[in-house]
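User: I'm writing a short report section on ligand binding and want a predicted complex to refer to. Could you take this sequence and flavin-adenine dinucleotide and write out the structure as tokens? A short remark afterwards would be nice.
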Amino acid sequence: MGAVSDVLSQLETLLGASGFTTDPVVSESYLAEWRGRYRGETPFIALPTNSREVAEIVRICARAGIAITPQGGNTGLVGGQIPQGEVLVSLRRMKRILDIDPLTDSMTVEAGVVLANVQAAAANIDRLFPMSLGSEGSATVGGLISTNAGGVHVMRYGMMRDLVMGLEVVLPNGQVLSALQPLRKDNTGYDLKHLFVGAEGTLGIVTAATLKLCPRSREHVVALAAVNSADDALSILQMLRSATDSLTAFEIMNAACVQVAVEQTPVLRHPFPCWKSWVVLIEFQAVRDVGLMETVEHLLADAMEAALIADVIIANSERQSREFWHLRESISGAQRALGAQSNHDISVPVSAVPEFLRSAAIAAHGVLSDVRILAFGHAGDGNVHYTVAMPATGSASEFENARAAIAEAVYSVVMKLGGSFSAEHGIGVARRDDLYRFKSSVALELMKAIKTSLDPQGIMNPRAMLRR
Ligand SMILES: Cc1cc2nc3c(=O)[nH]c(=O)nc-3n(C[C@H](O)[C@H](O)[C@H](O)COP(=O)(O)OP(=O)(O)OC[C@H]3O[C@@H](n4cnc5c(N)ncnc54)[C@H](O)[C@@H]3O)c2cc1C
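Assistant: Sure. The structure tokens for the complex follow:
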């Protein structure tokens, strides 16, 4: 107890009155997860403003063997950012853009910069930072890197790992790995930055990053298509990929997803009111003026002629494009209205998406008939957000009793198809047991060896990902 209070007073002295909070109302935004699934506690919420302070916080904690949970925007979906007794280090106040270079096509930012601000800064110099996801108004660069976030443009630009050129990281002993060079080529041994991408704060605290920028698109077209099946959706994907290099997003939504999004979001209207099957959101972007709208009209007309599309709406304004995206992005929040549910963020090879959807539905209904299936996501990457919700007239407790068997049924289909039980949200605390079930023993031993070598005391986010 003495050691803890000594550490806390050292942290207070280091950070000054504005560098930590004890206010219960302010603390709530750090300790409560937005969906209410995780609630945390901490002896101290540190709010550093630069990497020197972060390094000193870590040194103080490391000397006393006190554990730390790093946090960015608190939008993570697997609970890794919520402390259970650890010191919380929030990077939210580290929000400076340190450098931006149109010739190198790079931007160096502190870890607490919010994604939307990175996008805006890139647009200011006529460049694109292509990462885009529903939480972009709150998710920070440090969090996106630490979860290796995906989002809606992965099929064209890759995951966060593909967009990182350099990193600055405070290691668990307080040393700083400074590697922010905007180099496109650097074959000088192990590429250490990749250790920290997707590490979920278990190997150190990311304090800054150099990010890749891309050419900004001049033309942008978004369409919604009504299709009869996931097989047809995949045929459209294949057709479009062969015909154009402008495809940037291909998002599928089953009928239940569209229905619940429209019911729960007052500003939304059903794009195809009588349609009871799949809806696909398709986005195209072109860097040069190539008459993209005309090309898209021809391509989608071909798909209709081939009977792959039953109906289509091409957005005729920026506002309508945003409405289409709003429909897709409302699903995560809206589906909570369906009561008890088992959520899965899975991936399979793109060609296996229809087979996954067929087999998983049969498997889930085999456990509990009348469950409702919501399937949506980044079909162009083989990534489906797959929710099995309690029957409309059933009881939550009956569903809770069946929950583990439902998850098992879904995962057994995923594994049979050579897929992953966590495509883009990470492991955190929610998927830790699954990691131990599905990862090979060789991979697990390697992960543990890396963790022990960098963090022998096990103080960095000790509850996330690996068991102690
Ligand atoms: C509406 C919504 C939509 C979403 N859509 C997507 C999507 O399409 N694709 C996707 O991949 N994710 C998605 N997410 C999940 C989430 O936004 C991402 O995981 C995001 O990358 C988390 O960023 P954050 O700053 O909020 O991190 P946090 O939630 O604060 O932290 C996430 C993890 O990273 C660690 N961490 C945070 N900052 C640092 C740091 N500086 N150094 C070391 N470790 C750190 C934390 O300890 C924790 O383990 C969505 C979330 C919401 C709420």
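A remark for your report: The two ends are 22 Å apart (CA to CA). The CA atoms of residues 160 and 222 lie 23 Å apart.
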